[in-house]
Design goal:
Belongs to the NDC80/HEC1 family. This protein is an all-alpha fold. Among the domains are: about 100 residues, Actin-binding Protein, T-fimbrin, domain 1; about 70 residues. The protein is built from twelve helices and no strands.
């Protein structure tokens, strides 16, 4: 440790400067706002009288339309009922717009004609504007400049809104740097180099930790973006609910069509079988009548034979007639057997058809269950029925068809609802994509800003270290020079003292020799 007051380093001129005066209420607190405005406008500050409006194409029609759109969009975003027309607007719309924008900038005007010019002068407006512009704002000569000023103020208000909405990260970072600079300077002027080095290492470590935390947040945001992109890709590749419902609808419609075709085919078979059955019943009835007639004729013939006398001729004739009757009986039995075989075949065919109808009715009942039409709609075959409705157990046209029609209408309504839902999902997907893109841009901006801040602070730290090293080197050189000069001085002093001592020794020896000689001579 150095002694108190010895070897104390003098502060730099940059630290010895007098701080600026504290702004008072008369300055309208423009100190912090000027920095924001310089960032927003990217122009150096100057007074209102300079002609810098040449950089802004205020007379260009495209610029004017773009400025009007920006102003109207800003007013609409804050639920304002004011809007500026593309043509020359009215004086009321212009004054109301100016009052609204000045209020958003926290400069509520008492008298617009006076406060407006004070505000734009304090804000260093780059566009020249006459003081008579507000008297006739719709004038074609003054409107372009006034529109440029309003557009410029709206841009400042939008930037201030963005600063208010964004998280205040830079303020804490600036406070940390300010405390670091203050503590480093206090240690520096007190000559405590170890504390300066410890403070530098702590600040660098904090910056590294902050950078690491920011990188972790960026990685988390990237992972979130990746997950959202995966969800977006899944929504894009997978079939939509509408497509699934349409596919189910097409399957159900195909089932209904098959069901209708089966019912029509069954109805046709039933009609054909009923016709064949009626024909067979008529033929059977005719055979029964013919048999009854033959039996009656036989009885009548027996009676006639019993009543008549029998001779050889009659016996021969009766024998022939009996043989003819036997032949007719044989033919009738053959025909009856043939009809019985046909009847058996017909019954077998009817049995097969009933089995087919049972299988088809089971499929139809299963289709009805899949459609969830209710338990009241079921086909129950009845082999004893005489009509299609009695055979099937249900009338299709009066019972099932209205339900299927209403079900089809419900499917159409559900399809429309799902279509609207799909449109809403598509809009949400577009909004999510927009948000993802905005977050991606924000992450890139934060990353670039972090890199720039880190590089700037690192460069500043390097420059400060180099300056401190040079200062220490200069002090070391000065100390070495002073030591060397003191050494030379001490060497010259020692030589001078040696010369004086030798001279004194010589003079003492001479005096001693003289006194000794005098004593010897006196003796």
């Amino acid at each position: 440790m150095r002694a108190a007051g010895a070897g104390r380093r003098h502060p730099k001129d940059s630290f010895a400067q007098r701080p600026p005066p504290t702004p008072t209420a008369d300055t309208w607190q423009f100190t912090s706002r000027d920095s924001d405005l310089s960032l927003c406008s990217s122009r150096p500050a100057s007074s209102i009288g300079t002609n810098r409006s040449a950089a802004v194409p205020i007379t260009d029609r495209g610029y004017q339309l773009s400025a009007i759109r920006t102003i109207n969009a800003y007013l609409a975003s804050h639920s304002s009922q004011i809007s500026i027309k593309p043509t020359l607007p009215s004086a009321k719309d212009v004054t109301e717009t100016l009052k609204f924008v000045l209020n958003r900038l926290e400069f509520p005007p008492n008298k617009l004609e006076e406060d407006f010019y004070v505000v734009i002068k304090q804000l260093n407006c780059p566009i020249k504007l006459n003081k008579s512009a507000l008297r006739a704002p719709g004038n074609p000569h003054t409107w372009p400049n006034l529109l440029g000023v309003i557009h410029w103020l709206v841009q400042i208000a939008m930037y201030n809104d963005h600063l208010n909405d964004s998280p205040r990260v830079n303020s804490s970072f600036e406070d940390t740097l300010f405390r670091y600079a203050m503590e480093s300077y206090l240690h520096f002027i007190s000559g405590n180099d170890d504390s300066v080095e410890m403070l530098d290492s702590e600040v660098v470590e904090k910056l590294q930790q902050e950078k690491k935390s920011i990188e972790e947040r960026v990685e988390a945001l990237k992972e979130s973006v990746k997950n959202l992109e995966g969800k977006k890709e899944d929504l894009r590749t997978k079939p939509s609910p509408r497509e699934q419902l349409e596919e189910q609808r097409s399957v159900l419609e195909e089932d209904v069509k098959k069901f209708h075709a089966i019912i029509e085919q069954l109805n046709g078979h039933i009609v054909t079988v009923e016709k064949v059955l009626e024909e067979k019943e008529k033929e059977l009835e005719a055979k029964v009548k013919e048999k009854r007639r033959i039996c009656e004729e036989n009885e009548e013939l027996k009676k006639r034979i019993e009543m008549q006398g029998i001779n050889a001729r009659d016996a021969e004739r009766m024998k022939r007639e009996l043989q003819a009757v036997e032949r007719d009986i044989g033919d009738s039995e053959v025909a009856r057997n043939a009809w019985e075989e046909k009847s058996w075949d017909l019954n077998a065919t009817i049995g097969h058809k009933l089995k087919d109808l049972e299988a088809l009715s089971i499929e139809c009942n299963q289709g009805i269950k899949r459609l969830k039409l209710g338990n009241n709609f079921q086909y129950k075959l009845n082999a004893e029925g005489s009509t299609p409705a009695e055979v099937l157990g249900m009338d299709y046209k009066s019972t099932l068809k209205p339900v299927l029609t209403s079900f089809g209408d419900d499917i159409k309504n559900n399809s429309m609802a799902k279509l609207e839902e799909m449109i809403a999902l598509q809009q949400q997907s577009v909004e999510n994509a927009t948000k993802i893109e905005a977050k991606r841009n924000r992450i890139a901006a934060l990353q670039s800003r972090i890199d720039e801040n880190y590089k700037l602070k690192l460069q500043e730290a390097i420059v400060q270290e180099e300056e401190a090293t040079q200062m220490y080197a200069r002090e070391l050189y000065a100390l070495i020079d002073s030591v060397s000069k003191y050494k030379e001085y001490m060497t010259s002093k020692i030589l001078e003292m040696k010369r004086a001592l030798s001279e004194t020794v010589g003079s003492v020896s001479d005096l001693y020799k003289g006194s000794l000689t005098a004593q010897i001579s006196s003796l």
